[in-house]
């Protein structure tokens, strides 16, 4: 890169991660909303991930479940909704309009068109019929406040209509209108996930009418989302940004230009080897934590899944043990800004872990002692709950067994 472009090395990237992602002890947060704001989004595909990701970053982990449930279901300071890459996340409520405009609108249009096409192919009722069903469903949901799909179908029986999709293909299946319609309404930002039927580990959610939010300009919303993410995760390459947002590269570049992002030199990169970006003014050196730190992060944690190019915090040889076949990361053990192993919960509640890096004698003992403290911390607040990751990985399966 040209003269005057600052180089940010691996050590500094790890220091930024430790502080900005609330992982070092001195950087831990006071509440779940602080965590979500620091990370921009918490992965919500696996419900337990939200709580485990928060608990790993709270100064007082014992408050994890109570405070996270309050933020999600009472204060509504956090909202579970579809976001980047058509994935379910938990966002600070103030970001819902930004996420909807920047990433949801395009996905929603595709989802609705796909549903109408599949229903037509299967000989199911037409788009006008579907529009009438959805208005009736939204009215029923507004009356109830929160409801499951089955409860809504009791009010609107047409939600039980079934249709076959992909007839004659290897992946042929049957959907109910309720399953697909609620999904479409979710990505359109008209409904959100409500309180689960069971505990905080349950994946069976009620639905609720989405809170009202302003309709934002797409380009402006994309610029704001990228600014927030780069503030938390910068520096990042174009490849990282394209992967995390799910946008086209032209959209990424437009947003980078809109926020005046500054180019920096990295040890990795694509689209210009070694080129990364930070928000304007974020090029000064960042001091790392005063003390070494360890963390046990859950499967799909937003830090572990934050970048497409991960060699600066995750050695390639560790990936087969820590990822499933679809690229989902499992529970990971961190030491000073990099992944050094994995962990799991056994049936009796014990938190077990294994280091996968050769750290040497004295250093290994120090890491083991710090990780043991974190493992006990997790066990303390998880209590009687049993957590099995939705996407299981080779090491997690081995350890939990």
From TrEMBL:
Family annotation (PANTHER family): LMO0824 PROTEIN, WINGED HELIX DNA-BINDING DOMAIN-CONTAINING PROTEIN
Q: What is this protein called?
A: AlkZ family DNA glycosylase
Source organism per UniProt: Streptomyces ferrugineus
């Amino acid at each position: 890169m040209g003269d005057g472009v600052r180089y940010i090395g691996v050590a500094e990237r790890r220091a930024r991660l430790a502080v900005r992602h609330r992982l070092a002890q001195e950087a831990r947060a006071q509440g779940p909303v602080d965590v979500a704001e620091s990370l921009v989004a918490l992965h919500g595909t696996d419900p337990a991930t939200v709580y485990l990701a928060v608990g790993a970053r709270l100064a007082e982990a014992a408050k994890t479940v109570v405070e996270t449930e309050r933020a999600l279901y009472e204060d509504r300071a956090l909202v579970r909704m579809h976001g980047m890459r058509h994935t379910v996340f938990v966002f600070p409520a103030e970001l819902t309009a930004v996420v909807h405009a920047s990433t949801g609108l395009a996905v929603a249009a595709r989802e609705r068109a796909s549903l109408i096409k599949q229903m037509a192919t299967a000989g199911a009722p037409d788009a006008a019929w579907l529009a009438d069903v959805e208005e009736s469903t939204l009215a029923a949901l507004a009356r109830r406040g929160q409801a499951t799909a089955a409860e809504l179908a009791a009010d609107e029986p047409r939600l039980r209509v079934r249709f076959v999709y992909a007839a004659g293909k290897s992946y042929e299946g049957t959907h109910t209108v309720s399953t697909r319609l609620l999904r479409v309404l979710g990505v359109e930002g008209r409904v959100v996930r409500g309180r689960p039927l069971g505990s905080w580990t349950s994946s069976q959610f009620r639905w609720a009418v989405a809170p009202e939010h302003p309709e934002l300009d797409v380009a402006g919303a994309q610029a704001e989302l990228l600014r927030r993410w780069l503030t938390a995760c910068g520096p990042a390459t174009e490849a990282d940004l394209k992967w995390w947002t799910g946008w086209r590269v032209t959209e990424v570049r437009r947003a980078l230009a809109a926020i005046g992002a500054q180019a920096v030199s990295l040890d990795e990169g694509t689209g210009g080897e070694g080129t990364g970006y930070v928000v304007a003014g974020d090029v000064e050196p960042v001091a790392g934590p005063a003390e070494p730190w360890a963390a046990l992060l859950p499967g799909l944690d937003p830090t572990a899944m934050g970048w497409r190019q991960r060699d600066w915090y995750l050695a390639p040889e560790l990936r087969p043990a820590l990822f499933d076949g679809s690229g989902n990361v499992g529970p990971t053990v961190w030491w000073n800004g990099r992944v050094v192993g994995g962990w799991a919960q056994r049936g009796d509640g014990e938190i077990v872990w294994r280091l996968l890096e050769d750290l040497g004698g004295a250093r290994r003992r120090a890491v083991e002692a710090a990780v043991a403290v974190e493992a006990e911390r997790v066990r303390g607040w998880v209590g009687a709950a049993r957590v099995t990751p939705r996407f299981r990985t080779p090491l997690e399966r081995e350890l939990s067994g």
